[in-house]
Amino acid sequence: MEYAQSGTPPYYTCQKCGRQDVKLWRPYNGFDPDSRLRCALCVGQQENIDVSRMRPDGTVRIDGRWEDLLGGYTPAVPLEDDKEEVVYWGRMSIPRQGLDWWQQLPNW
User: SS3 for 101?
Assistant: First the structure.
């Protein structure tokens, strides 16, 4: 996994609907690669959040602010150099390159 490469790694798939090559979210309190990765549409449905007006950077307006945290889900940005196991950055630790990689992915 390298942020400079286009596209997503093979494991980066919505585990509810199977969408690939789109932004994904993971449970806020889970770094486990087997945790429930979800696309915007599945998170929106599950968390009862209207994602229809999501901006290209993956944010939606919640309580008057633009947020990328959707209910209990945070952007799923894998570590770039993690070759042996898949690990995701903590919400406040995502490096700029990782956030740029995630934000350039399609919303759906």
Answer: helix
What tokens does 64 get? 């008057």
Q: Quote the CA–CA distance of 50 and 29 in Å, as a whole number.
A: 22
Query: Which residues, in sequence order, are CB contacts of 81 under 8 Å at separation 6+?
Result: 1
* Lowest mean pLDDT segment, chosen from 10-14, 16-20, 55-59, 88-92: 88-92
In DSSP terms, which residues pair with 70 in a beta bridge? 73
**Which has the closest alpha carbon to 58: 70, 72, 45, 46?**
70
Contact between 7 and 21 under an 8 Å Cβ cutoff? The reply is yes
Query: What pTM did the predictor assign?
Result: 0.89
On the CB side of 29, CA atoms within 13 Å amount to 2
Collapsing DSSP states into helix, strand and coil, what is residue 65?
strand
> What pLDDT shows up at residue 17?
95
CB of 67 within 8 A of CB of 59?
Answer: yes
